[in-house]
Amino acid sequence: MFIQYNNLDINFTIGSTRFRTLNIAYEHLHRIIPSHSHGDNSYEIHYVASGRGYITVGEKTYEIPPNTLYMAGPHVAHAQISVQGDPMVDYCIYLRLRRTSSGEKKTDDLDRLFTEKTFWIGQDNCQIKNTLELLFRELKEQKTGYTVYVETLLRQLIVQMIRNYQGGKKALHHFKPATPAEAQDFIIEESFLYDYPVLTLEQLAERLGLGCRQTERLMQDIYGKTFLQKKGDARMSAASILLTYSDRSISSIAEELGYSSVEHFSAAFRKYYNKSARQYRKESRDMT
Fold first, then answer.
1. What Pfam families does this protein's entry cite (predicted)?
2. Is the pLDDT of residue 157 over 90?
3. Nearest to residue 155, comparing CAs of 8, 6, 19, 5?
4. How far apart are CA 7 and CA 218, in angstroms?
């Protein structure tokens, strides 16, 4: 079997380097690949999923068992042949690189780490086979967004290649923590998601690093609601779920949702839903 994609304009950038994918191929390798080398800025990645064979690089010969990964860079002469009766199933990605004027940040100099290796061979430890299978599936099926997905998979392949020959070396760059201002929406959502029964305006303001008045203004800007309205929404949503899908008493529901008394809860519920909690439970269960 031979599958090849070599007429597609697939480009992606890592750091200050533009990667152009000129050939993507899958082959049951019955033929001999004679010694050949690639020009400046050209790299070939091979992954042998099954079968066995040999690769010669210059004067040296390497045995290729299943799960072998190797990369040949510019001017590295190499040849490949399968063991008779057990042909290799070979994935091949051919790339040509070009430096760009500006680069992406926080890449750990991945483009440099890739290009500085002109040859590497070893066993894959990063599940490249899964990436390659997804890559060929996307190229075949061409579902919505497949061009973005293919570029993402190729970027992932470069990272997996580097991780293989770096042997688990830690990253140089990391994501910076979000500032409180950047994370305000998330802090508010998390607070109402987990602490709505007992959350106070003062507690939320402290988490946001703001004053109470600033917090109230922020709530209006984001939700168009006051703190108490937002808290009431969360409590009433939880109440409707508990009334519909549990057999808990109304008093125990009121207690869980942080109300001082069942009377307080019942009054708040009636005002919100225009019916009593007991009536709401009956109607909701009749509908399910």
1. AraC_binding, HTH_18
2. yes
3. 19
4. 53
